Amino acid sequence: MEVLQKKLFDFLRDPEKISLYKQSSGDFSRSSALSFEVVVGSILNLFKESVEFNLQNILPSLSVRAVTGSAFSQARYKVKPEVFRDLLEFFKEPYCGLEKKLWKGHILLAGDGSTLNLPASKDIEAYFGVHSVNQLGTKRYLARALLIYDVLNNFIVSGHISSMKTGEKNLLREWLSTALINDNHILILDRGFGNFCTFKELLGKGMKFCVRLPTNNSNFAKRVIDDEREDFITRWEPSPKERENSRSNQLDCVPIQVRVIKVRLTTGETEILVTNLSDQQKYTSKDMADLYKLRWGVEEGFKNLKPKMKIEQFGCKKAAGIFQEFYAHIFCINMVSLTGIVANKLIEKRTRHRKWKYKYNWKNAYRFIREKLIEFLFCKATSTLLDKWLKQISSSIVPEKPDRHFPRDTRSSNRKGRITQFNK
């Protein structure tokens, strides 16, 4: 973490780097309270109360005079959103270097999509479009987000945001096109991704996967349901429609070989899992059922991002600001994750005699990190701060209680008061 801090510290002050992320060469050229690093640091600290309230707390700690919210709003758009995306690259080295939780020697990645409610403005409408209009004529604006999430270590490997015109499968394809696939990665996906094209692309990239198959929209699904076997390897011949979709996505139509596992749920429903983990001795059908359950971790990732961090309370009304804050939230989540991985080892030692396994309280850990994030970014000596974080996080714990079940809320998402989202 100290190495990470030094790299971030140097990056935010490097004139060459700053020149790459300014909207124009004249930006941040004069001495001002709102320098490049101050603006970036303020956005990374997130806007959870109001812009001016946050600035009044942040700027004095940086020995910077107070400024108005309007001045900050003008300064923030001089910074390209790409700087926040590229700052996430600094997490890769410490993440790879830490001793992480694994499943049978594998890092488990889960991919899933969700929507983010956006504030109303002409700029937002021009970029993201109007999602819907209610009977009163009130417009609703949404963005689509995709997370690739390490479910055992609460780390976001990749995050993507786009307009609703881009489907979650296309966002997954975007990630796959640049992802560095590791042999010890397993990607878990829900049935929204369960189609021939997705499997074709995953196999082409050499990615190990476990994907739930929808049971009502393909000839292959109908065939495996009718098959009496519970765990078998079979050949998937693409249907005419699947061939057409493959060609439109620049994929060949050669049949693929996959393993199919049927899982009987407590509801009486049969879950169909498709995987390329063909070793039935090493990865039993029970192992695969347990593996797919771990996909729920990405849902917890969105739970952290949305209700806990309140990402939808954006502090901006421009598309560029939406991208800035989206990546800033991922930055903060990964700060919590890296510190939490170390804290979990302390927790395991302290609670090994107890009935339940324990983990750190994520929301409290996020509060501890955010409270001192500016100090972490802008102060050279951080060993004392890191020790404080580890002590705080490892002392705020909750038990892990597996196999708990709750009734699913099937009411329409339109019931939520998302149209008139609170804006700052």
UniProtKB/TrEMBL annotation:
Domain (Transposase IS4-like): residue spans on this chain: 136-335
Gene3D superfamilies attached to this UniProt entry: Transposase Inhibitor Protein From Tn5, Chain A, domain 1
UniProt record, GO biological process: DNA transposition
Compositionally biased intervals (Basic and acidic residues): 401-412
Record keywords: DNA recombination, DNA-binding, Membrane, Transmembrane, Transmembrane helix, Transposition
InterPro entries from the UniProt entry: RNaseH-like_sf, Transpos_IS4, Transposase_11
Coiled-coil intervals: none
Cited Pfam families: DDE_Tnp_1
A GO molecular-function annotation: transposase activity
Record region (Disordered): 401-424
Source domain of life: Bacteria
Segments passing through the bilayer: 326-347
NCBIfam families reported in the protein's UniProt record: transpos_IS4_1 (NF033592)
Family per similarity comment: Belongs to the transposase 11 family.
Name of the protein this chain belongs to: IS4 family transposase
Native source species: Fulvivirga marina
